Amino acid sequence: MPEGDTLFRTAAGLRPYLVGRTVDAARARQPGPQADRLVGATVTGVEAHGKNLLIRFDNGLEVRTHLGMHGSWHRYRPGERWRRPPARARLVIEVSGAIAVCFDAPTVELFEQRTEALHPNLRKLGPDLLVEPFDIDEALRRLRDTAQRPPTIGEALLDQRALAGIGNEVRNQALWEARVSPFRRVDEVDDETLRELVDRSRSILREGARTGWRPSDIYGTAGRPCPRCGTRIRSETYGGELPRIAYWCPTCQPDARKEAR
Q1: Separation in Å, CA 81 to CA 14, 26, 232
Q2: I need a surface site. Which of 155, 208, 213, 221 has the fewest CB within 10 A?
């Protein structure tokens, strides 16, 4: 699933070709949004918010896409051959000199900009790790909000209501760098370590946003030696609302569940 840095770069790549230009044609796969309502409107902004891409128009409308596991945005010149079949296009926006195509996204919606603050998904998002200034105190408060947060730090870091933009690859890397077990309960993680995890996640995402590359020493390496100590990396799918594969080093990140037993 694309993470916050990927969406940041996607927005940056689309912005010069869309912002300030009038929509000549727009279509969406049905059932889907009434994209023809965008025709004649001028694009006023293209922004990333966590894992969401937001496109705003001067007629008060706004498009939100969430790319899920397989979605992506492409930009083409008029007449250029698309790299994916047209049947997989969820939304197409044509302006002078450019065509923006969203492929395979599970979420494509159109709504009034004035309702953004009330949007059921957007209004719940925690602080975006790529936005400055970043409210670290609010991020820590949300991570510790045990009334709403998942119980383990590995689950909490993926919860977009706590921090917007972290995906599984960044989650695993930050925990490995900080030598923290993904299975450790949030209430057992001290403030200094929690702050370190947030800082490391921000650093990883900022590098990805700047260069298109992020460090990935442990993700997808189950059975291979840990780059730090040589112990074989383990993996396990876990999590309540959103199960994901956790990768960890049993030596560098002792399994908190075994410690509890």
Answers
A1: 18, 18, 45
A2: 213
